[in-house]
Amino acid sequence: ETGVTQSPTHLIKTxxxxxxxxxxxxxxxxxxxxxxxxxxxxxxxxFQYYREEENGRGNFPPRFSGLQFPNYSSELxxxxxxxxxxxxxxxxxSFSQAESLQETQYFGPGTRLLVL
Amino acid sequence: AQSVTQLDSQVPVFExxxxxxxxxxxxxxxxxxxxxxxxxxxxxQLLLKYLSGSTLVKGINGFxxxxxxxxxxxxxxxxxVHISDTAEYFCAVSSINDYKLSFGAGTTVTxxx
Lengths: 116, 113
Fold this sequence. Notes:
The complex is a heterodimer. By secondary structure, chain A is mostly beta strands. Chain A contains no helices and 13 strands. Chain A is globular. The termini of chain A are far apart. The model of chain A has no long low-confidence stretch (mean pLDDT 92). Helices cover 0% and strands 55% of the residues of chain B. Chain B has strands at 3-6, 10-14, 19-21, 23-26, 31-38, 44-50, 56-58, 64-68, 73-78, 87-95, 102-103, 107-112. In chain B, strands 2, 5, 6, 10, 11 and 12 form a six-stranded mixed beta sheet that branches. In chain B, strand 10 (87-95) and strand 11 (102-103) form a beta hairpin. Classes of the chains: A mainly beta, B mainly beta. The A-B interface holds A 4, 6, 31, 33, 35, 40-45, 48, 55-56, 58, 90, 92, 94, 96, 100, 102, 104-110 and B 4, 34, 36, 42-46, 49, 90, 92, 97-106.
C-alpha cells in the first residue's frame, strides 16, 4: 500500500510569485485535505477536495486554490505569495463514503515553503 | 466550531519514566478525537483516535489516551518512554459531522537518558 506523497519537499519563492504544490493520496482514498503549519504552531485547515469538488474551506483567502484530479491526486496553488505564507504545507488523504462520512485522515511528509 | 488546548507546550522527561500530555477541547456537538505525532522534519503520524465506544483508547508505540466527556479532555499517556519518543505531539478534534481537523498548538516531548 502506497502512503501519501507530496512534491516538492522544499521550495523557495519570492514575494508576489505563484506556487503549485502536489499531493498523491494513499491507495484507496478519494478525499484530500490541505493544511498549513506555520513554524511552532499546529496545522490549520485550508480546504478539502472530494470527487474533484471543493468540500469545505478554512479561513484562507481566495489566492489559495486547489484542484483534485480523477486519480484523486491534488494540487494546492497559492498566488501572490506573501512572507507569512512561509510554512510546512501538509496534505492528508482519507476515504469518504459521502461528503460528511469520512474516515481517518493520513498525512504526507509535507512541502516546506520559504517565501523571501 | 471546535477548538483544542494543549496545556503543556514542553514536557521534558527521563527515559523509562511515564509521561502524560494534556489536551482539552471545546465543542457544542459530539466529536472525534485524535493524537498525532510529528518527528523532526516529517509529516504527522496518527498515534490513536477516539470515535466511539470504550473511553480508553490504545494506540501505536505503547501510547494510550482516555476520553473524558464531562471534563472535555483527551489526555495521552505512556508508562515508559524511550529516547525515540522525542517529538512534537498534536491533539486534534473534529465534529462527527465535519471532516475538518482542528489542532492544538502542540507539545514538545524531549526524552533524556
